[in-house]
Amino acid sequence: MGSNPRFWRKRLAYPLYVLVFVLLGAEITVRILGYTAWQPAEQSFSVEPDGSFFRPDSLLGYAGRAGRFSITLGDTLHYTVTHRADGFRITAPLTQVDTADRPEIWILGCSFTHGFGVNDAENYPWMLQADFPQYRIRNWAMDGYGTLHAYRILQAKLKAERPPALVILAYGAFHDQRNTSNRYWRKVLQGREMVAGIRYPQARFDESGNVQFSTSQLEYRPFPLMRYSALSHLLEMTYNRQQDQQLRSEDITTSLIDSIQETLLDHKVSLLIAGIFHHPETTRRLQEFKERGHAVADISVDVERPELRILPSDGHPNRKAHRMMADELALLLPKLLNGEPNFGNE
């Protein structure tokens, strides 16, 4: 019996059958619970000229290219982006010669502030410039940026330019993932044009608890079969959550914002953290920043409402939503610019 091949094939096949049965049962269970296989977001995105408005940058990983760009998103959305010579988006017509010595307001953030999906005159920094002509509004935001990018931009700009009257840091809870460049963020970017060939800055705690900076290629490795298996995708999401906790992404962001505040105080510049992503996690984080003594405001709009998003398949704010965000800031800026002592701590 011991040398019978059929006997051993049966003995070896039995645990394999059990494993397949268990995995099949687990797959059915997680699907019943509402989990699905991974479906990467697919959306055509074309830029003219040259296919991209990004360029490599040693400090930020990538930055904007100077010039005027025509962009087509999907099959229906067409918009224009114009960058100044420094690669950041304009907040007034290029033909408008700026000779006035005006105090400045700097706004830093991601695609919500850069204005993904809307024309130059349709994002909230441009609208604020029109509302506050006595100030010069600077839009230092870019698609895909996080708090670490804002920190590095401020460090560089404060050395090279006159300090502004106010800095507005546009914040969404998803920036926490970007600041550590974790698997959550790399997964979002999977297959996106902006990832090709660029390196991305990341912040991590060292063994002594100090924040260290580095850059890495934006590579992402899916779990096997997660495009087909809800179980594999659930295991991958669980792994991502554990990695995020180990990297302490939220604590990294908090440390970066505290450092930004300290730097701005040295230059006698006020800081407003403006929530731009309508989500409970952003609300919670804004409350935490407020408890640490930062001035905060939630200017976000609910882009789950179809009339406020650029496309049904894309949750970036449209022109109407940008107008609403600009209006919220327009109510707050006089208090901040007049130095109201208790702003954000009522």
Describe the structure.
Helix 9 (280-291) links the parallel strand 11 and strand 12 (295-298). The protein is elongated. The protein has a five-stranded parallel β-sheet, sandwiched between helices. The chain has a three-stranded antiparallel β-sheet with strand order 1-4-5, with no helix packed on it. The model has no long low-confidence stretch (mean pLDDT 90). The chain is α/β, with parallel strands linked by helices and 346 residues long. It has helices at residues 5-32, 111-114, 124-131, 147-160, 175-180, 183-188, 230-247, 249-266, 280-291, 319-337, and strands spanning 45-48, 54-57, 61-64, 67-73, 77-83, 104-108, 136-139, 166-171, 199-205, 211-217, 270-275, 295-298, 309-311, 314-317.
Mean pLDDT: 90
Count every beta strand, where a strand is a DSSP E run of 2 or more residues.
Answer: 14
Lateral arrangement of strands in the main beta sheet: 7-6-8-11-12
Helix content: 25-40%
Figure out the total of helices: 10
> What is the beta-strand fraction?
15-25%
Secondary-structure element order, N to C = HEEEEEEHHEHEHHEEHHEHEEEH
Calculate the terminal CA-CA distance, rounded to whole Å: 83 Å
Question: What is the C-alpha radius of gyration, as a whole number of Å?
Answer: 24 Å
- Major β-sheet annotation: 5 strands, parallel
Chain oligomer state: single chain
Shape: elongated
Uncertain regions spanning at least 5 consecutive residues: none
Structural class: alpha/beta
